Amino acid sequence: MLAQQWSGAKGVMFYSTEILTDRFHLTDEQAKQIPTIAQLLTLGIGGIGAVAVIIGMNILDKVGRRSVLVVSSLATSICAALIVVGSALDIGPMVATAMYVFNLVFQAGAGFIPYLCASELLPYYALGSISGLATSVNCLTLFVVSFIFPILDKALKAYLFVPFIATNLITFLFGVFMMPEAKGKSITEVVEEYQGPVRIVAGPFVRRKASASPATFSAPKVAD
Q1: Are 164 and 6 in contact (CB under 8 A)?
Q2: pLDDT by residue (tens digit) across 165-184?
Q3: Residue 214 zone, left/alpha/beta (φ > 0; ψ -120 to 50; rest)
């Protein structure tokens, strides 16, 4: 959830009109002529996100959650870099195209996978507490990102998305080295295979061998 909000996707959704207005150098008179090109492009960014979720749901069970997250986070990092390059070189169409692809690859993977992970990676007795904690972190991070995004925009200008290149790369590395693959596995198998506070796992397209004897998990007993 933390990485999801720090991906820069909310900035693309919430502030794309302001960003594109600046990148296309629209005058005050042009900005008053509703709808502007920036507003139309923003509408398209939102629409492509809805299509991307459908695409992501269709490929999720074919290639696995972890693989989709790894590819999605790497692609969003690349798109964020292209937004920076387009902004620095003052190429408005390049910025707009990179934003479109950014939202497409984000919504097709990293945008919804965190919501699926809890129920597939956690034993049932811990699901409620950790899901509540994750929701709280998600809302708090969304507030922080939404609050500081305009500040970053003024401070970094063309290099606004540089921090999000780094955060998406961190998500990519987390997916490669630490995130279990839950595709085709029960919660018992996942917990048994990757139990421990920190576990370095195999590459995103390599399956670890399951243990020969299944493990069982139950909620901790409460003393009477």
Answers
A1: yes
A2: 999 999 999 888 888 877 77
A3: beta
Nearest to 186 by CA among 122, 102, 140: 122
pLDDT, tens digit (0-9, with 9 covering 90-100), for 123-169: 777 777 888 888 888 889 888 988 898 899 889 989 999 999 999 99
At 101, list the tokens: 């692809």
CA distance 20 to 113: 28
CA 171 → CA 9, 14, 168, 199, distances in Å? 14, 22, 5, 16
d(CA 49, CA 165): 20
Note if the pTM is more than 0.70.
yes
Long-range own/partner contacts, residues 81-87 (CB < 8 A, 24 or more apart): 81/161, 81/165, 83/160, 83/161, 84/158, 84/159, 84/160, 84/161, 84/162, 84/165, 86/23, 87/23, 87/157, 87/158, 87/159, 87/160, 87/161
Which band of pLDDT confidence, cut at 50, 70 and 90, is reported for residue 214?
A: very low
CA distances from 83 to 104, 113, 159 (A): 14, 24, 9
State the Cα–Cα distance between residues 105 and 114, nearest whole angstrom.
15
More confident position, 85 or 35:
85
